[in-house]
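queue> pop job 88
queue> type: inverse folding (structure -> sequence)
queue> payload:
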């Protein structure tokens, strides 16, 4: 029997695009295919803007060693520049890519940060393919996970209409509308009313937007659902069944819609061995010559990349002559302060940490306002290293391989490891072997409230909630959970937030200005916050490449 396309490992570009076409056909909007593939594809190669070796002798500072900073440095090295990456974290790489291993052999792990790669995210796949990383699917052919909403447990295959509708004060029309239609009306109707070219603005940053699109980015999710005529009962139902959306009702409506537009939760993959292998591949490339990734550029034309961990940038200053930038930085352990002078800078740290950096002179007024108020949301994840996979066992609390359960309890999501999805039979992947369960993954206020509990009480709350969702007796997990680990992204000192999520009107007001260079074209900006893909590796990698290209073009034009 043929393997479904979304179950293949290491999909080719052709296979990925076939999945995209099929999903768009099923969604009734095949005309979006060219827009999505084109707008999410990587920018043109940097050698189209300047020649290899053309930046010899040019010193470039990169603030931040996450995926945005790493991709910018990788591209700029092709032109011969001498690049220094100043990264604050001195005990791990990758920024908000954070693979956590419970043991040195790396067999039992999960992702505290980025953990899914949609097939539509062309720039992410560009680098996965470039570095030859292996991927495996996360999508399951048939979900059999739990919904636990309004103190009621059901499977994703059960009838929401029969079981949950009676628990909410729905209007007669809502009560007679199937769940799939109600959900589509809430989150797809307005998008589908837009012409295809206007829909594509969901993943574009423009100086001005079409009038038809503006309401999607100037109203919150809650406001939009109310404007669509949905009752508070329906909004509460939607918030319970789709707890991710329910926790971010104050965010801009188009933050949800752009993910629907590009099918971000269908046909997803991960990198085998951990997503940290992607930033690790970048750093390894900086230490190596004769790499095929550099398209046969002679070694004497390549630049150098120096990666300096444990360096927090404290100041960004324009030199008196306006043709250089001075970066001051502090060692996170010794607190020793250093100042370096660069010809150009790529700033690839989140605004949540850029806010504390001394900037003289100020950037544009609008950019400084964005640094002050652009919205980031918190996220919390807790992992349980379990000595057996109770969720896979043939019992009422199990029969699940991969996927995720949702609940209106504060833990919000439970994600099941996907490493058994491709197992041919139970004997090759036993439910009685250990596995790492994402026992809680939540956003915004849920993550702040759960994440800031006293650690022992937080563990007990999450454990009790997992037992509740699965219908397990209290204390069942006491003998199963061997170890646990929690990360609260607001409390990570070099992130202070999980990812950007615009509030109403913030994209319209700030997005274009956030991308503009500063200091006489000497400083450029990258990161998921200045992308159209907030919270995804795609946004970081694309903007890193784009910032490098902007810099290269500016310098090339100056030299002509």
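queue> result:
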């Amino acid at each position: 029997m043929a393997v479904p396309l979304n179950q293949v490992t290491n999909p080719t570009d052709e296979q990925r695009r076939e999945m995209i076409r099929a999903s768009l056909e099923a969604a009734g909007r095949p005309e979006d295919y060219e827009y999505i593939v084109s707008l999410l594809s990587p920018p043109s190669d940097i050698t189209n803007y300047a020649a290899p070796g053309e930046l010899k002798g040019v010193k470039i500072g990169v603030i931040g060693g996450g995926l945005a900073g790493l991709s910018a440095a990788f591209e700029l090295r092709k032109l011969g520049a001498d690049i220094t990456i100043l990264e604050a974290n001195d005990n791990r790489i990758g920024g908000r890519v954070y693979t956590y291993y419970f043991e040195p052999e790396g067999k039992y792990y999960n992702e505290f940060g980025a953990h899914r790669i949609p097939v539509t995210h062309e720039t992410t796949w560009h680098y996965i393919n470039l570095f030859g990383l292996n991927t495996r699917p996360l999508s399951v052919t048939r979900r059999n996970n739990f919904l636990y909403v309004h103190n009621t447990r059901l499977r994703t295959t059960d009838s929401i209409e029969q079981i949950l509708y009676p628990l909410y004060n729905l209007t007669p029309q809502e009560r007679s509308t199937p769940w799939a239609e109600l959900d589509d009306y809430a989150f797809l109707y307005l998008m589908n009313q837009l012409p295809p070219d206007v829909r594509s603005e969901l993943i574009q940053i423009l100086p001005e937007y079409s009038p038809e699109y503006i309401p999607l980015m100037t109203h919150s999710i809650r406001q939009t659902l109310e404007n669509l005529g949905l009752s508070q009962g329906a909004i509460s139902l939607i918030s319970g069944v789709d707890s991710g959306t329910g926790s971010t009702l104050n965010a801009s409506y188009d933050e949800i819609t752009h993910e629907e537009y590009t099918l971000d939760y269908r046909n997803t993959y991960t990198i085998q061995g951990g997503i940290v292998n992607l930033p690790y591949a970048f750093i390894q490339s900086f230490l190596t010559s004769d790499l095929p990734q550099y398209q046969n550029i002679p070694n004497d034309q390549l630049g150098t990349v120096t990666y300096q961990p444990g360096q927090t940038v404290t100041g960004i200053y324009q030199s008196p002559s306006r043709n250089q930038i001075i970066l001051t930085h502090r060692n996170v352990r010794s607190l020793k302060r250093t100042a370096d002078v660069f010809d150009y800078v790529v700033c690839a740290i989140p605004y949540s940490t850029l806010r504390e950096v001394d900037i003289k002179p100020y950037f544009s007024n609008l950019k400084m306002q964005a640094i002050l108020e652009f919205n980031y949301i918190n996220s919390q994840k807790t992992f349980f290293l379990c000595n057996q996979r109770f969720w896979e066992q043939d019992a009422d609390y199990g029969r699940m391989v991969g996927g995720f359960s949702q609940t209106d309890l504060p833990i919000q999501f439970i994600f099941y490891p996907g490493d058994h999805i491709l197992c041919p039979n139970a004997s090759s992947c036993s439910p009685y072997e250990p596995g790492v369960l994402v026992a809680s993954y939540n956003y915004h206020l849920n993550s702040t409230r759960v994440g800031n509990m006293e650690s022992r009480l937080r563990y007990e709350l999450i454990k009790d909630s997992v037992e509740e969702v699965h219908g397990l007796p209290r204390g069942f997990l006491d003998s199963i959970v061997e170890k646990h680990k929690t990360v609260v992204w607001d409390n990570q000192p070099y992130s202070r937030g999980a990812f950007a999520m615009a509030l109403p009107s913030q994209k319209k007001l700030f997005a274009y200005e956030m991308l503009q260079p500063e200091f006489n074209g000497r400083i450029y900006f990258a990161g998921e916050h200045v992308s159209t893909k907030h919270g995804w590796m795609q946004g970081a990698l694309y903007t890193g490449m784009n910032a490098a290209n902007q810099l290269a073009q500016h310098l090339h034009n100056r030299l002509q």
